Each structure stands twice: as C-alpha cells, then as structure tokens.
Amino acid sequence: MPGDKSLSHRAALFAPLGDGPARVRGFLRAQDTLRSLAAVRDLGADVRDDGSALSIGPGDFPATGRAAAGAPQLEIDCGNSGTTARLLLGLLAGRRVRALLDGDASLRSRPMGRVVAPLRALGADIAYRGADGRLPLVVTGAALRGGEHAMASPSAQVASALLLAALSSSAPVTVRGCRGARDHTPRLLARMGADLGGWAPGDDAVTLRPGPPLRAVAHDIPADPSSAAFLLGAAALVPGSRVTVPGVLLNPTRGGFLAVLREMGADLAVAPAAEAADGAEPTAAVTVGAGALRAVRIEGAVRVATLVDELPLLAVLAARARGTTELRDAAELRVKESDRLAAVAAGLRELGVTVVEHPDGLDIVGESAGFPARGAANIATHGDHRIAMAFAVAGLASRAGVILDDDACVAVSFPGFFAACAALEGAGSSG
Ligand code: S3P
Question: 154 near 197, Cβ under 8 Å?
Fold first, then answer.
C-alpha cells in the first residue's frame, strides 16, 4: 500500500523547517504529494531522492520575516491539491517570499476564504488575482501577530495553515473547534520541538507559542487508510474475498471508516502493531472479509470529519447493504475535488439505486441482492480520484461492471490502484 497522503504532504512541507536534513521513508509518490514536494524544492529546500527514501533539508528555504519590497514572484502550481494550497498559505504568510499559488480547474473552484480570512486576521498579506475567495492568489510575507480562531466545522487544513503561520508570528495563535479533524500537524510539530503547551490528541483547542527552533525528525510514513479503504471495501462486497492490509495508519481522527464498517456488520479484524516509539503515528493490520452489510445513519460534524474522504466509498457500500442508509452533516463533500454528494448520487442512480439527495447528505436505499442496472453503468468521475475508485469498487461488486469516464485521475492519490485490484483478483487463500 502507498504511504499516507496527509503525512506525505506534511513531511514535504514541514521538513524544510527543521535544523538539518530529514529522512523520509514511505513518501507517497502520487500527483498531489509530488506537488508539495515540488513546491518546497522551488522555494529553496534541499530535496534529495535516492529512489526509495527522500532527504529534505532547509537549504535556502525562506526565513521568518517580511518579503523584501519588489521581491520576485515565485509561481507555484498546486495542481488538484487543496492540502498543498491551504497549508502553503499558512507556511508562507510570515516568510521572506512572494508567491503566486494556482491550481487546476477543480482547485480554482474550491473555497480558500476559510484559510485566507483567519490568516489576514493575523496580519497576512494575501491578494486574490481572480474571483474573491478562489485561486489564483498572491501571498507576500508579512509580520504576523498572534490571535484566536474558532473553526465553523473541523478542518485539518485550516488548523494546519494557522499553526504553520504561528511558527512565524510574534505571539501565540490558538485554534478552536479541532475535535474530529485529523491531528497530524500538531503531532508532528510537537515531535519537531514546537511549543504546543499541554496539547494532547483529542483536545478541541490547540495553541502554538512561537519561539523554539524546530529540529529535523525522521518520517516513516505508514500505509494510507483512505486508500486501503477501497481494497477493504471491495473485499466486503465481492463474494469469497478476504483482504489484509498491513501497516495501516490507525490515528483515531482517521478511524471513522472502520468504525462504520463494524457498525454495518462487516467481517472486520484490526490487529494493532506495538506502540510506535518517539511519538510516531500508530498502525495496524486490517482484515476484511466478504459478508452481508446493514444500513447505518452517519451524522454529526465530528464523526463526519473522521471519515470525510471515505464517504463516496461508504455510499457505495451502503448501496449494497440491507436497509436505507442516511448520511447528514456532510455538506463539506460539495466542495471537495468535485461535488461528491451530487457525483455519488448520479453514479448510484446509473447502477439502478434509489438515492435522495439533501443539501448536507444522502439517503441511499440499499440493494442487498445486487445492483438493479442490467448493463454496465456509465460513471461521470468529474476527474475526482475518490469518485473513480469508489465506483471501481461498485463495478467489482456488480454483474455488468462500470465504465469510468476517467481512470487516470486515480494517480492523484493512488497511482497503483488498478494494479492492486488486479493483483488481488484470484490471489487465492494465501493472497
Ligand atoms: C486533509 C484534510 C481533509 C481531507 C483532505 C486532506 C489534510 O480536508 O479531506 O483530503 O491532509 O489535512 P479538511 O481539513 O478540509 O476537512
């Protein structure tokens, strides 16, 4: 399994802040995370790649402070990656650099105001070059002050941007409303020596006091639970299957998918690895076997945050469960790489499933005997990697299969996805 996407972004973006080269093993080589790596290289970081591990050091990475008047403008293409764009905004807001951040059509349509507004309240100089609240925009390093921000809903990207900005501010920055949001950023910054006071996993608020220099730490990136979910989901649906994924990241803020699978009655076993040393993230071997599933209700902003990237797949699983699954409090899905509520509803209807779309969720009438569609279902992926993989799983679990209008988009997060599916096909009892 490929390395975790969130941890790979953070290894690339945070390593240049350390006091020397950091060794990164298990880095995810996918389009999104390679955008973050290219960005820090363009910003002056010393990136070396021996083909298996990376070494990332500060090199000429911009120091804390204001950009010089007339500083040249560096252009950074964030591609399809919201994490690259939003974390870079916080990282660069208080550094000696001027950068234009842009992205593809999907990223240009996604909201940036949720990061830009609280950064401006800290004194950041950010100017939109096109539509308000959207990329492209220019960030010019400014003197940042401290402050507090309460998030409307839990977002790791917003919290991370503010904590990264806090590293170059003159006073502490507090972020509230974090419960449920993935907590990789405070975990990693604490390991690098940042002053996060008494912060502990599960806390709703986090405060970073600027000052302590950060040290270089080794990164051993575990398998991505959000990518593993597609293979585990396929195992749940395809009769006679049993799949084990070893070394999966098992951070509680990423654990919602497995909790819902268990609630749906899946044949699921989680074998945690021994506690990782030096504050590294916990991992487990996860096994799923085929079996009947039942409908569930998924609601609440905190719960939704812990499985937000797995919801397209959960919708496909729900479509083969007994009963009607209700998803609520998930309006955030409308501003991901595509409008995922609309894309999932349309794809499931192509498979003959009855779906009711709500502003913040879906009702999915499960077809436990099999998808009703007689022919292959035509699926519009909207170039969204998780829509493509979720419906590929639906195809594996259907009689006539699916036709995806774009299979290349899986390379955003899981370039080996189709090869992994093919390798599992008929792998046998030891496979
Ligand atoms: C991510 C946070 C999540 C998630 C995204 C990756 C991260 O977004 O959907 O795929 O690495 O911080 P939000 O923080 O906006 O919910």
Answer: no
Q: Is 219 in the pocket of ligand 1 (CB under 6 A)?
A: no
**The total number of structural domains that make up the chain:** 2
* Tens-place pLDDT, residues 137-188: 999 999 999 999 999 999 999 999 999 999 999 999 999 999 999 999 999 9
Catalytic residue, chosen from 32, 224, 309, 384, is 309
Q: In whole angstroms, what is the distance from residue 412 CA to residue 410 CA?
A: 5
Average pLDDT, the chain: 97
**Residue 418 amino acid letter:** F
Provide the domain limits for residue 97: 5-209
19 catalytic, yes or no? Answer: no
CA 140 to chain centre: 26
Judge whether 219 lies within some domain: no
In this structure, the chain runs to a length of: 431
The minimum-distance atom of ligand 1 relative to the CA of 332 is: 16
> Which among 257, 248, 255 has a CA at the least distance from the CA of 276?
248
Residue 206's nearest CA partner among 190, 222, 218 is 190
Contact 352, 269 (CB under 8 A): no
CATH of the domain at 362: 3.65.10.10
Query: How crowded is residue 325: how many other Cβ atoms within 10 Å of its Cβ?
Result: 26
Give dist(CA 409, CA 150) in Å, integer.
34
Cα distances (angstroms) measured from residue 359 to each of 49, 299, 313, 332, 355: 45, 13, 19, 10, 13
* DSSP category for residue 121: H
* Sign of the dihedral defined by the CA atoms of residues 404, 30, 25, 15, in that order: negative
Query: Which pLDDT tens digit goes with each residue over 319-371?
Result: 999 999 999 999 999 999 999 999 999 999 999 999 999 999 999 999 999 99
Which of 158, 175, 209 is the last residue in one of the domains?
A: 209
pLDDT tens digits for range 88-116? 999 999 999 999 999 999 999 999 999 99
pLDDT at 279: 74
Q: Which of 6, 302, 311 to mutate to test the pocket of ligand 1 (most atoms within 8 A of CB)?
A: 6
Residue 6 alpha carbon to ligand 1 centre in Å? 8
Residue 305 belongs to some domain of the structure:
yes
Strands (E), 152-221: 173-176, 206-208, 219-220
